[in-house]
């Protein structure tokens, strides 16, 4: 989608390994674009992406790179309280990519997405749920 821009990635993987995995994905094949690492940043098709390896989301300084939405995909921050650290760090919204472990609302496209009312922290349930949704 042309309206989505990846501006930062937080992962404990080394940026060089991330670049390699993107270039040579074993499922999707070789990436049809350019990928390099420069000064600790990923450069994908000429776009600079900040790379960090921070264990505490409160320290991520999302506001420095104008992050609107964080995809929380670690599986570690699945409550409103823990995911809210991303908001504290400057993100506007957080989408948990796994089922929440508290009363954080879960939305699934094709099932109940029409109930989304702009909440700043949500879960998109699980990959299994999403693959079975209408």
From TrEMBL:
Coiled coil: none annotated. One of its GO terms (biological process) is pyridine-containing compound metabolic process. CDD domains: GAPDH_I_N. The keyword Oxidoreductase applies. GO terms for molecular function: NAD binding; oxidoreductase activity, acting on the aldehyde or oxo group of donors, NAD or NADP as acceptor. Residues 1-127 form the Glyceraldehyde 3-phosphate dehydrogenase NAD(P) binding domain. Belongs to the glyceraldehyde-3-phosphate dehydrogenase family. This is Glyceraldehyde-3-phosphate dehydrogenase. It comes from Shigella dysenteriae. The gene is gapA.
């Amino acid at each position: 989608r042309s309206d989505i821009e990846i501006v930062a990635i937080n992962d404990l993987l080394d940026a060089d390994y991330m670049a390699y995995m993107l270039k040579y994905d074993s499922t999707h094949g070789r990436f049809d674009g350019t990928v390099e690492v420069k000064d600790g940043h990923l450069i994908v098709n000429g776009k600079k992406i900040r790379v960090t390896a921070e264990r505490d989301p409160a320290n991520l300084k999302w506001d420095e790179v104008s992050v609107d939405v964080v995809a929380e995909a670690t599986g570690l921050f699945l409550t409103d309280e823990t995911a809210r650290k991303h908001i504290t760090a400057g993100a506007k919204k957080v989408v948990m990519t796994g089922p929440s472990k508290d009363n954080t609302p879960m939305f699934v496209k094709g099932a109940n997405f029409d109930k989304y009312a702009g909440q700043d922290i949500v879960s998109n349930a699980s990959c299994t749920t999403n693959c079975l949704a209408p």
